[in-house]
Amino acid sequence: MNRISVLDSLRGLAASIVVFHHVFYSTSFFWELKNTHYHLFMILDFISDLNQHSVFFFFILSGFCIQLSSSKMNFSLKKDLNTYFFKRFNRILPLYWFSLILTLLIGIAMYQTKDPVFGVKSFVGNLLFLQTSNTFDYSWFVPYGNNGPLWSLAYEMFYYLLFPFYWLLILKIHSKMKFSFSAYDLAFIGSFVFSLLGFVLNKLLPNPFFTYSIYFIMWYSGVYLAYLYQNKLKKYSVMLLFLSIVIVLEVVMIPYLSLTINNICKSSLMMIAAYLFYVFPVLRNNIVFQFLKNLLNQLFTKIGEGSYALYLIHYPILTYLLSIGRITYWYEILFFFVSMPIISFWIEKLIVKIPFTFLKLNYVGK
């Protein structure tokens, strides 16, 4: 798959917002602005609050990229299935392992390794992608060493492992039932049903696997969007049905204050907004949009190329710098934002190409 610069830019923007969110809430510098520059503080606070939306956007973008890279694969063939898993593992695992080791080393440097979150059990649980956010009332494991962003990697890995088998099941159902709509339409509708089923089961029997299932619609909506983009399709009826369901869910679930359903609806609206930009050229071919797109590419493309590493390693490094009092003034914060993307870019460029290469021929097949 050839790189699409705007996807890297959006990935870089989302990662930068996540980093800013952690810096914003961890340093006293920004909170002092509340008394001296209130309006500036409110703007920065608004940007920081986009953190959750950025993570949801990562899910959508992940599904989009998976569809672009695997649309020509036949998962019923062993070679294609092996190739798919090799590419996913090669992309995810090296940097993930690096982040776990870095988190451990920083924990040692901060004399925190007696904390259970640095224990062997926690390490193995994260190694197997069984962690959930430490904000949950229940979990098997929390992010290793309190490296908060690691929670989303468990979701990503769950979706990567599920995707080819889910798609094969959809193809089987579609061929037997002879629906008038495509297998992709069925898979998109099915992903919503799958997420709602996960939500209900999680209420009855709280379980991290059910928790992962809840946000599958976020991830798969990216797959469906990429399918429409690749085939130049405009599925008005499907998207209208999807929008109607989202609106009904928002109205029905408001009395129950379900944050989870609200998050699903937010991400769904992001996907629908992206769909509208695709369907109506007037929204993306005007001067203002082109200017913003070019500006975005200039500022965030390179950051996007190292965004995965930036997402994984920034939090333990930030924690360490805060512990030694090195993130206090505006110029230290600025230096952190300049150096971290550069470091992340080179880490991602070097590390992602090293592991698994020697296994490629045997695993993927000639």
Q: What can be said about this structure in brief?
A:
This protein is mainly alpha-helical. It has helices spanning 5-26, 28-36, 38-48, 51-70, 78-109, 120-127, 151-177, 183-204, 208-214, 216-231, 236-253, 259-279, 281-284, 287-305, 307-323, 330-351, 360-364.
Which keywords apply here?
366 residues, mainly alpha, 17 helices, globular
Description:
The chain has helices at residues 5-26, 28-36, 38-48, 51-70, 78-109, 120-127, 151-177, 183-204, 208-214, 216-231, 236-253, 259-279, 281-284, 287-305, 307-323, 330-351, 360-364. Helix 1 packs across helix 3 and helix 4 crosses helix 10 (216-231). The model has no long low-confidence stretch (mean pLDDT 90). It is globular, with a radius of gyration of 21 Å. It has one domain. The chain is mainly alpha-helical. 77% of the residues lie in helices and 0% in strands.
Shape: globular
Number of helices: 17
**Beta-strand percentage?**
under 5%
Number of domains: 1
Overall pLDDT metric: 90
Structural class: mainly alpha
The ordered string of helix (H) and strand (E) elements is HHHHHHHHHHHHHHHHH
Distance between the termini: 20 Å
Biggest sheet descriptor: none
Total DSSP E strands: 0
Radius of gyration: 21 Å
Q: Spans of 5+ residues with little confidence (pLDDT < 50)?
A: none
- Fraction in helix: over 70%
